[in-house]
Amino acid sequence: MLSVLAHRAYRHLFAAQVIALVGTGLLTVALGLLAFRIAGDRAGSVLGTALAIKMVAYVLVAPVAQAFTARLPRRAFLVATDLVRAVIALTLPFVDQVWQVYVLIFVLQSASAAFTPTFQATIPDILPDERDYTRALSLSRLAYDLENLLSPTLAALLLTVVPYNALFGGTVVGFLCSAALVVSVTLPTATRSDRQGGVYDRTMRGLRIYLATPRLRGLLALNLAVAAAGAMVIVNTVVIVQGLMERPQADVALALGVFGGGSMIAALTLPRLLDRLSDRAIMIPAAALLGAVLLGVAAMTWGGTIGWPLLLATWLVLGIAYSAVQTPTGRLLRRSATQDDRPAVFAAQFALSHAAWLVTYPLAGWLGAYAGMPATLAVLGALTLAGVAAAAWTWPAADPDVIEHAHADLAQGHPHLHQGKRHAHAFVIDDLHRQWPARAG
Predict the structure, then answer these.
(1) CB 27 within 8 A of CB 167
(2) pLDDT in tens, 216-258
(3) CA dihedral angle for residue 151, residue 308, residue 313, residue 29, rounded to 10 degrees
(4) Global pTM value
(5) Which of 67, 95, 246, 350 makes the best surface tag, with the fewest CB within 10 Å?
(6) Which of 55-84 are b and which e, b meaning 16 or more Cβ less than 10 Å from the residue's Cβ?
(7) CA 295 from centre of chain
(8) What tens digit of pLDDT does each residue of 165-179 get?
């Protein structure tokens, strides 16, 4: 897996990703402490609102930002968004009003919503070989999991010697280092098409391609499945461990660490599996495992309580299955769009996946508070399996990488065919002959 780091441009971008993630992890801890300083006992509601604002920014800003920035130089754009985030993080320690926190968080997360899809869409251009790209996706998954494990630990260590405001300084350093690493490499130039259309057309283009592509409609359903299972872990771990089990705070970190460890196991294993199996053969069974585990634990604990060993075992399995669904996502997006359309499709995935989290986060919290954990496990497990069923129905089992297809706007004598299975798209998108990716499936 590490062989892909021999590529200098990718190595620098991966380092930029890791450093920025650590900075973001420090920001999360510092933001909670800042909310407590400003709002006291209302800190939970302030932080919850800030996280909701983050999700709204992700859903609304990513497609719009891509429409405005698709023709800008990638390196300059990525550096600019890193600098914006650094400035906002530098400003946060000086605020003393809740509304100021909300405004700054929206601006910061809007910059992240513009940065992340562009960054993700750049990697397949740097690593055109699918084996290399698969390994890059696994490394990216590992980076996210390690950040979840290490950032809270690093924050705790720093807080023993510096005030919490210094954590914002760590965030600033992370974004500045990320910008410097991006500057240090030459990125592939995004292709410039001669397509016409206003901002609305460019904003909706990625969504239209996404929703008209069967495998991506399946991915949309899997986004919901993953969000339902993931929200159970992220929202309710602290409630189960401290509220129901009355265990110490350190056990909350341990339980989340077990979930992250399971995710890392899958990320380390997947590259070899994906060399032999299709994405669908891994992602749909893994998502089904998420739902089955949630429903199974709900049945085992109905009328009782979940034990500590069972919780750790459950979170480990959920972590493995969660990563098995999440990691191959970039391969599907890459395969389903031309280089020109790739940023728009990545932005659509970014927005749609976070829209699923925007639904499941409050659902997991509300159910946990008012219906109890067994019922919460059952409802989220059922929602996960519903997503799996929708994915299995919309994502064809025979899904070759390149599909022979004919567009509705082509003359009968101009089949525009490619190797693979003949496929007729059910959706007609404006000027398809020129715009629809030959690889869309």
Answers:
(1) yes
(2) 999 999 999 999 999 898 888 888 888 888 888 778 778 888 8
(3) -10
(4) 0.76
(5) 246
(6) bbbbbbbbbbbbbebbeeebbebbbbbbeb
(7) 24
(8) 888 898 899 999 999
